[in-house]
UniProtKB/TrEMBL annotation:
A GO BP annotation: carbohydrate metabolic process
EC nos: 3.5.2.9
Species: Paenacidovorax caeni
Keyword list, A-Z: ATP-binding, Hydrolase, Nucleotide-binding
ATP-binding listed as a keyword: yes
An example molecular function term from Gene Ontology annotations: 5-oxoprolinase (ATP-hydrolyzing) activity
Name this protein carries in UniProt: 5-oxoprolinase subunit A
Reaction catalysed by this enzyme: 5-oxo-L-proline + ATP + 2 H2O = L-glutamate + ADP + phosphate + H(+)
Length: 250
């Protein structure tokens, strides 16, 4: 199993998360590309730390929405969205090369992630961008989303992920952040929840139902309160149960 986290999101004097601590726990790092968060110097620092730790690096591409942290819905034209994603991946590739690592996968962020899970037009725009830059990169997507089939049909490798710190609806979608209980905080309960996911392929929905979630990676949001302790507890619980932890990319 892989554990990933969203990193490189600090912006100047505004600090977001603890990248150094998270990179000692996770096996993959979704690194911001400057559109929803992150500045070049901070991103480069995170990439260097990831390279030193042997953590796989992915491009955390987003809508151009610094004020909204990439969590506001947008409706760019296909021409805009394709170019925006190409631009972000290319920028991170340059910084990654300077840091002694490379971009192995792409994970869309926030509103873009949720939109392309279901919206075929925007999904195909993102797929087109990945194929144009590097057809060998892996796309990380929400487990069970139609996006997975669309991307595989066009020749991309796709890895499905589950969210440790987010509540699920009965249909396997994520509970909106605007609703109570959408974000989970109890580190021990979350660790047990993720062990159940690994062992059974199921999570408990917000209504208490068992929901099938087939995933090869577990995400802990780096900006969540207590994120480092949450990731640490998840890793410890999985290792205690004999689960091998490694990046999903070779």
């Amino acid at each position: 199993m892989d554990i990933n986290s969203d990193l490189g999101e600090s912006f100047g004097a505004w600090r977001m998360g603890d990248d150094a601590a998270m990179l000692g726990i996770v096996t993959s790092a979704n690194v911001a590309c400057g559109f929803h968060a992150g500045d070049p110097a901070g991103i480069l620092e995170t990439l260097r730390a990831a390279a030193q730790r042997g953590v796989a690096v992915g491009a955390h591409v987003a809508y151009p929405d610094l004020v909204g942290f990439g969590r506001r819905n947008m409706d760019p034209t296909s021409q805009e969205l394709v170019a925006d994603v190409i631009y972000q991946i290319g920028s991170l590739q340059g910084l990654a090369a300077a840091a002694g690592t490379r971009v192995r996968y792409v994970k869309p962020h926030g509103a873009l992630y949720n939109t392309i899970a279901q919206d075929e037009r925007q999904a195909n725009d993102v797929i087109t961008a990945l194929l144009a830059v590097d057809p060998s990169v892996t796309l990380m997507a929400l487990a069970g989303a139609p996006l997975i089939g669309w991307a595989r049909a066009r020749g991309l490798r796709v890895v499905a992920e589950a969210f440790a710190d987010r509540a699920y609806n009965d249909d396997g979608s994520l509970v909106s952040r605007r609703l109570p209980g959408a974000v989970l905080h109890d580190a021990d309960a979350i660790a047990e929840r993720m062990l159940r996911l690994v062992q059974t392929g199921e999570v408990e929905s917000i209504t208490g139902r068992s929901v099938p979630v087939q995933a090869d990676s577990i995400c802990v949001h780096g900006d969540s309160p207590g994120a480092v302790e949450m990731a640490r507890r998840i890793r410890a619980r999985l290792e205690q149960a004999g689960v091998a932890l490694r990046p999903f990319v070779d």
